[in-house]
Design goal:
Blueprint: H1 3-10, E1 19-22, H2 28-38, E2 44-47, H3 49-65, E3 69-76, H4 80-91, E4 97-101, H5 104-117, E5 123-127, H6 135-140, H7 147-161, E6 165-167, H8 170-180, E7 185-188, H9 207-213, E8 217-220, H10 222-225, H11 230-244
Parallel strand pairs: 1-2, 1-8, 2-3, 3-4, 4-5, 5-6, 6-7, 7-8
Helix pairs in contact: 4-5, 5-7, 7-8, 8-9, 9-11
Length: 245
């Protein structure tokens, strides 16, 4: 699977397509309501762990079948054979993006699964370092060296494995371009429009600044799913992305 070809398939084609909405709510019914409230103004809908354990996998299949781009944020990491079989099953769901942790063996097994399934429509994303972590958190987890070095190493591993892209903080995208070039897409959580609290995110950036830094896709969760008017908020974010482009 060519990384250059992956980029051609998965690079965003418009400001709206760059916006990923995190459906970080406790029930599938609430998630469906958010999709209905924002349909047409969101490029991709992300289904994370909370929702996956409350009907989110079925919802992902249904939304994908109805033409929505879905990001299944499963963050897989396990023995090679388990990853291989799990990714093969995800590849049959019709989703556009899925995540695995950016460990070399995990990523290689995931890429092999797509090769065996002959699936060229699923973009595999390697999660580098969670945006909720800072330097102290990384040290507590037993890693040596600054976050930037760990992210750079994992990004290089993702490229070597043949992944479609990586997940990293927008603050790191600029420095990663020398490693990734234009071969892998960059997906950046921790996006907070001006005036919104960072919450549990620590490496954050506004939508406009993230686009100017080189981010391809922006993940926005609470500022959208907790907004009084999610559609209006989505439109404001897309307008900021468009201006930054």
């Amino acid at each position: 699977m060519s990384t250059a070809a992956t980029l051609n398939r998965f690079a965003p084609t418009s400001a709206r397509n760059r916006l990923i909405m995190g459906l970080d709510v406790p029930t599938a019914q609430q998630a469906e309501a958010l999709v209905n409230a924002t349909e047409g103004d969101i490029g991709v809908y992300k289904i994370g762990m909370e929702l996956q354990f409350a009907g989110g996998l079925e919802l992902a299949r249904d939304l994908a079948a109805s033409g929505h781009k879905i990001f299944l944020d499963v963050k897989l990491h396990d023995i090679d054979n388990t990853i291989l079989r799990a990714v093969k099953n995800v590849a049959k769901m019709g989703v556009t993006f899925m995540t695995v942790h950016a460990y070399p063996k995990t990523m290689r097994a995931a890429v092999q699964a797509l090769r065996e399934e002959c699936n060229r429509d699923l973009c595999l994303l390697g999660v580098t370092v969670l945006t909720s972590m800072d330097e102290a958190d990384l040290t507590d987890a037993g890693y040596k060296g600054p976050i930037a070095d760990v992210v750079s190493a994992r990004a290089a591993d993702a490229r070597a494995a043949g992944m479609g892209g990586i997940v990293c903080a927008a603050t790191e995208v600029g420095s990663l371009k020398s490693i990734l070039g234009d071969e892998l897409v960059t997906v950046t959580p921790g996006i907070r429009p001006s005036g919104h609290a960072a919450g549990d995110q620590k490496r954050v950036m506004t939508p406009g600044d993230a686009i100017r830094a080189g981010s391809d896709y922006l993940v926005v969760g609470r500022p959208l799913n907790q907004a009084a008017d999610p559609r209006a908020t989505a439109q404001q974010i897309v307008a900021e992305i468009e201006a930054a482009l």
